[in-house]
Structure formats: structure tokens, C-alpha cells
Design a protein that fits this description.
182 residues, mainly alpha, Multidrug-efflux Transporter Regulator, Chain: A, Domain 2, three-stranded antiparallel β-sheet, 8 helices
Length: 182
């Protein structure tokens, strides 16, 4: 088994030593064998660092990344990294695509078919709708600790329909007790 020092790991994964130490502290990476200058890492550490970066590019928070990779062994992590290298990045990846993916992932597998239907594409707001003239005010919807949706008011009618759908889906996911306005 190859043993690497911290500089080798950082070079191969394109991260800083501080990032490595932080991820070990957060439980995203297993600790090195040894301590101080004698600390040794494995190619599994490098693969995990690369996978973490790939998942961060998909807008996943570290807590979710931790849940997903803790149960994987080094071979499974490397296989995911290799698979990601062969896949081409999706065009049009946006925050809306991310939200759709999160909502699709939240539906229990028993209640959906093998290929869940994608919600219809929402039209992009016109420049006039996205930048209303005059004063605006923000409406805050709280669904859980650290999970909020902010909507600028006034909002055009065409913009209100998708917001209503998003609020409805969020209420189903987080329960009715959420959605406090501030």
C-alpha cells in the first residue's frame, strides 16, 4: 500500500493541508496513521478528497457528503471518482436543477417509478420580472433550522406560481409547522 505524506496528498487532491485536517476533524476523512511529520496517508484519502470536491460541485453540504461517504470503502470511493471522470458534465446545471434533484430525492422510492418524472421546465423570468421597479421587501419562509426560502415582493404573477409550487413541496418535505414569515 502506498503511503503518502501531507504534501503528496494535497498535490494529488488539489487541496490545502488545512482542508485535510478540517475534513479529518469533521469525520469526512479517516485520520492519518501516525502524527505530526510522521503522519502517513493512503490513496484512499486522496480518492475521498476528490469525491468530496465532486459532491461539493453538486451543491451538497458537508453534512450530507459525510452521510454519503462514511459507509463507503476506499474501492467504492475510487469507483465513484473514476465514474465521474468518464461522465460529461451536464449542460444547464443550475440552482433550479439542484432544487428539482433534491425534491426528486426526497420522494420515497416506493412511491415513484424507476425514472421519476421531471417537473416541467419553468420559464426564465423576463428582465422586468426579475428586477421590479420601486421598493421591494423580502418575505422569509422558515422550514427547519438553517433552511429558509426568501422571496422578494412584489412578485409578478408568473413568478408567484413556481414559488407556490416550491412552498407546497417544501411544506410536504418539512411538515406544516415550518413556513414562518418574518
Amino acid at each position: 500500500m502506498d503511503e503518502l505524506d501531507i504534501s503528496d496528498v494535497c498535490d494529488r487532491a488539489d487541496v490545502t493541508p488545512r482542508t485535510v485536517y478540517f475534513y479529518v476533524q469533521q469525520g469526512l476523512l479517516p485520520p492519518a496513521s501516525g502524527a505530526g511529520p510522521a503522519a502517513r496517508y493512503t490513496p484512499g484519502h486522496v480518492a475521498r478528497l476528490k469525491l468530496i470536491r465532486l459532491l461539493q460541485k453538486q451543491h451538497l453540504p458537508l453534512a450530507e457528503i459525510s452521510k454519503r461517504i462514511r459507509r463507503l470503502n476506499d474501492d467504492e470511493v475510487q469507483a465513484l471518482v473514476d465514474e465521474a471522470k468518464t461522465r460529461r458534465p451536464e449542460k444547464g446545471s443550475s440552482a433550479l436543477d439542484y432544487i428539482r434533484g433534491v425534491l426528486a430525492d426526497s420522494i420515497p422510492s416506493a412511491s415513484r417509478s424507476t425514472a421519476p418524472p421531471r417537473p416541467p421546465a419553468l420559464p426564465a423570468p423576463s428582465v422586468r420580472e426579475s428586477t421590479p421597479l420601486g421598493r421591494s421587501q423580502w418575505e422569509r419562509h422558515i422550514f427547519a433550522d438553517g433552511i429558509e426560502l426568501h422571496v422578494r415582493r412584489p412578485l409578478a404573477r408568473a413568478g408567484q406560481r413556481p414559488v407556490d409550487k416550491l412552498l407546497g413541496a417544501a411544506r410536504q418535505i418539512f411538515g406544516e409547522e415550518g413556513d414562518e414569515h418574518s
